[in-house]
Amino acid sequence: MKYIKNKEDRNSILFYLANLISIFGTAIYTFAISLYTLKITGSSISFSTTLILSVLPIIILNPFVGVIVDKFNKKKLAVIANALNGIFLFTVYLISNWKGLNLGTIYLSTFVITSINIIFDISIDSAIPNIVSKEKVVNINSGNRIIDSISSVLGPVLGGVAFAAFNIETFILINSISFIVSAILDTLIDFKYNTENESKEMYSESITVGKLNYFKEIAEGFKYLISKRYIIRILSIFIIFNFFISFSVTIPIPIILNNILEIPAKSYGLIQGGIPVGMIIGAFVVKKIMAKYKLNNIFSAVGIVMSVNIILLSIPILFKTINNINVYIMYYLIIMIFMGICISLVDIPFSYTMQTNIEEEYRGRSISLTISIVKVVVPISYIISGILLQSIEPYIVVLFGGISVLIISIIFFKYAKRLYN
């Protein structure tokens, strides 16, 4: 990296490489270890338990990790997190060669890796405004979104290939090495590039993790967050969008595609891949859109487009007159791509707003609390949608969600100017 003279460009490239290795490593590991669990147990419950254990720590630990990130050096935390994942997986590799890989070890490793990754994710997300200039924050968030989207598509594919090509022990060793490489790359990033002066460095060497009053610190972070009226209003619409996408798309659409329209499995996978493809497209165009329009106007417009997309998802069920299955496949694929674009046009501006409008000493807690709130709201929407689908037609749930987003987006647009008051 010495040949890259511009320190900001060097930071960006190192950031992308480190995240690419870390995110892909986690996505591939989670999928492959889940397949292995299914293979050795033959139980769908064990399979789903492994996936749940990859999400549960995010809800439980995020607020506490936010406190740690705000109180300690973000670079050290990011490096230590990746290094710990590498060391832990190497330990799992040794144990699996010695005693074999049992279900308890799989559950433990999944929980531990996800927990450690939370430290890395929040440390990196809250440090982005320090790694590059404010003008490049959107760029780096867009790049990160592209990496996330590609990993969501290729992670299961590469996980399946790795599962077939290697025994599980070798795969664990390779993943261990990838985390160590990511940690080394993190050490080369200048986390103070955009810090005005070192006197603003607020980390204290005298503080230890055990001495922190976590609940007090979380309460202070929450108090600070709700004092930012603009952030709270943007957060509210962000949460509403997440709720209704989960409510009217994530749960009912698989039922519509698989059970009602009887889309073939391969074609169903193609349709599902439309969202990450759309998210990549959205990540490429979001900066130009943000340069022309205010955030509240973007949210309103995207909300209206998103609501139309959701409503369109129910149309083939209302007017089932086409017998050509390929028409349905293309129809739903196009809608899913547009849904993905909408998601990027909400997620990236929201991340930018959080990173650039929250003071550094509260940034970790604010980001972690936001993620926790969204992660709690989404399962609630799953439950409500699932209960409703027991007694009413899926297209009604989809229509209700789409119309709700449309009404909320119009109201938000009408009163958007008040966000700045």
TrEMBL record:
InterPro entries documented for this protein: MFS, MFS_trans_sf
**Recorded topology in the membrane:** Multi-pass membrane protein
Please give the chief subcellular localization of this protein. membrane
**Cellular compartments annotated:** Cell membrane
**What are the entry keywords?**
Cell membrane, Membrane, Transmembrane, Transmembrane helix, Transport
Q: What top-level branch of life does the organism fall under? A: Bacteria
How is this protein annotated for GO cellular component? Answer: plasma membrane
Q: Which GO terms describe its molecular function?
A: transmembrane transporter activity
Q: Where do the TM regions start and end?
A: 12-38, 44-65, 77-95, 172-191, 230-257, 269-286, 298-319, 325-346, 367-389, 395-416
Supply the name of the protein: Putative permease
